[in-house]
Specification:
alpha/beta, 5 domains, 7-stranded mixed beta sheet, 35 helices, about 55% helix, about 5% strand, flat, disordered N terminus, binds S-adenosylmethionine
Length: about 900
Amino acid sequence: MGKTQKKTGKGRLDKYYKLAKEQGYRARSAFKLIQLNKKYSFLEGARCCIDLCAAPGGWLQVASKYMPVNSVIVGVDLVPIKPIPRVVTFAADITTPHCRNLIRGELKDWKADVVLHDGAPNVGTAWVQDAYSQSELVLMSMKLAVEFLLKGGTFVTKVFRSADYNNLIWVFKQLFGKVEATKPPSSRNVSAEIFVVCRNFLAPKHIDPKFFDPKHVFKDLSANAPIEDISKQAAAQAQVNVFQPEKKRRKRDGYADGDYILYKEAGAADFIKGDDPVGFLGTMNKITFKTEEEKKWLTMEMTTEDVEADCEDLKVLGKGDFKALMRWRTSLREELGLEVKTKDTEELTETVEVTDEAIDPEQEIEEELARLNAEAAARTKRDRRRANEAKQRTIQRMQLQMTAPLDIGLEQQDQSLRLGQDDVFDLEDTKRGLKKKHALEQLLDGEADGDSCEDEEDASNDDDEVLDEEEERERKLRTLEQDLDGLYESYQERMRERDAKYRVKEARRKDKSREEWGGIKRGGSDEENESDYEEGGWDTVQAVKARIDESSDSDLSDEDEDEIPAKVAPSSKKRRAEEVIDLTKGAKKARTNATAIQNGTMDAKLSRSAEAWFNQGLFKSAGIDNIEFNNEDEGLDEAEEDDIDMRDASGSEPETPEVRGPFCTVYSVINNKPQIESDDHDDFEIVPLAEEEGDIDMWDVEDEDEDKINQEKIRQHGLTTAEAVSLATQLVNREKTRTDLINDGFNRYSLNSKDDLPSWFLDDESKHYKANIPVTKEAIDALKAKMRALDARPIKKVAEAKARKKMKAAQKLEKAMRKAEGVNETSDMTEREKAKQIEKLMARGMSTKKKQKEIKVVVAKGAHKGLKGRPKGVKGRYVMVDSRMKKEMRAQKRRDKASKKRK
Ligand SMILES: C[S@@+](CC[C@H](N)C(=O)[O-])C[C@H]1O[C@@H](n2cnc3c(N)ncnc32)[C@H](O)[C@@H]1O
């Protein structure tokens, strides 16, 4: 019972239902159109679309989303549709001329590029009748479509697979160039619906009206096969229904013709005494107890309340209920003497086909041997793989100093026990257990119908299954993960398509993630191999692990250890030299900006030691381009400052460009990249890499030059996060040393295995699973001050306008001065006149007042009366006024003048 209800109840609330809710579509059917459009792309280029049978409006929402902005969308349905932006809707029956007129009125002489039809008549009558009216509705919608469709247009319709299906397709093919039937993934499998996409409307001049006449297009249902044939067909169908009640709704191949009545009742006697109880249960809705004999059966012991309830409505029964009814029938028949017990058992077991062919015993032994061999091989393979995995894990832990050699034994013990490493709660195992138990119960019950036979087979195969269960589980997990990955990708894709904000966020996140821990950094690399050396600690460890495996579990040989640094060393120098140049620039900036807080607000907050640091000559001496920082935590070595110039005159690189300074370290820490250093000298300790690049998992580093980019960013904007500022301050104040920071870089967040983890999970982790770098109050205050300073700055346009004004004033002044010089040099003027003239010129040059252009007032009288356009003889700007206005203006001027004088 339960199963059937699920399909109609919560079972219907599938992922598309949830997606529709999530994305604001009114109906899950919206996804059908989305998927159809994805396949055939008919909406993107359409300028006019008619949706027939559009309520509640899911398809209209999709059309409005995917069609160009100015397109016309019209929706019609029997029931009114809630308004949708830029969609016109009507409530009308699509089979009526009224509906046609409404659409015509809306479209005027426009033609539609797409006509959609997802109509479904109101169900309730027999299915065959429903199918018929559905097909009829399709025909009607096609009639409307061809009337409004543009040549080359598309008609999308829903049809049900019934006897009329082929006829409909034939008609479509007469009118459209391409006709394809498809079932989008969002259409439930249990539904017989299919979508036909008819493209390239041929727009023939004359269309035979018979194409739209259901009588001609479809078969006459009344002229069907005789009733006995129909009932036989129904009975055959019913067999399937009884043993697989959950499948009884599958009607994709169409229903038996002529089976008009949906609700059927029959007496219990027909069931008990009839020859075909299974067919009976499949076709009937109810078993009645009307006759005296039947009523007597009701009082019998075997007719339990459950049986009675089951008889009430056969359509809602599950497999178990049908079995119960069959058992009831058998026992009643025994009671009535219609059947003897042995025969009954026979009957029940007759569905079990035992194909007991004579098997050669030798062949049997060989087969058994082969099976056992295969079993043993599989087991050995599995054990070996597990042992390898455990070994790799141990080595990795040892490398990270997480495991003492003593632990190894413990782990191996765990491995041998295996139990401890399995999931405590494994659904699959539980299921299998239940399955076995069920099979056992069935055997004890002695049930022997088709299904129990299946179960028995299952039980007998269980031993074999145990062998493959591990693989099976892994396979399932893989499939599940792939599915999830796929879904996640499509989710991201959708988000990207829909949401510009999301794209920006993603881009920002990627930017940010670049600043996060990128693994153990190598000192440098060859140009061409640079990207390989960008890899992180985990990959490096992985690579080492791979090598260890290759050299059959032995530690790295001395040879290997020597070999790799030798390979890397020359390029590392070059790389470091490049960093020096970048860093020195960073340091120069830092000098002026004090720990890269460019506005200097941080200065006040810095401790004395920090001040001392920034007061060093290094920061004060202007024009220093190349500064070498000492690699020691103690700060700059005076002696080494003399060796500041890293490049000789020819620009060639220095031999030993050993440069690491606090800013470099801060930068590394901001990037969360610990750099492994040896204690005794300044060079990096190179963590050996595997030779085979293919073995190395790449980090998600998108830009090979990310270090440079980040350094550039810091140079331009300073340290922008509170974490970075805190670390920089701590470093400068000697509260932390580089070694501390490097050690901090190895945290529980940085070296997790990323093996086989799905991308959606990694994405999520990269957002949230990271170390919390402590921030100080001072750092936050400094950043706030920086932001305040930024806020206080005028906006670009204002600044530009001011600058323009300033420039113009300067130009004016310059011009005045030039003129004044000219006046000064003239000989035909007295000194007094010259001085006066120069004073005048300079006053004009200094004045910021704009000379207002004169506007001529023209009175609209005489020749100018009623004149349109420029009056004759008037040049420049003018304004037409009537004489009154002119007088008033003159009076105003007089008054102004008088009041000025009085002042
Ligand atoms: C499956 S729904 C359509 C869902 C719609 N495509 C959506 O996405 O929201 C079928 C619709 O067909 C409508 N319908 C059935 N017969 C109709 C007719 N003769 N004229 C207009 N609409 C009809 C029903 O009212 C029902 O709303």
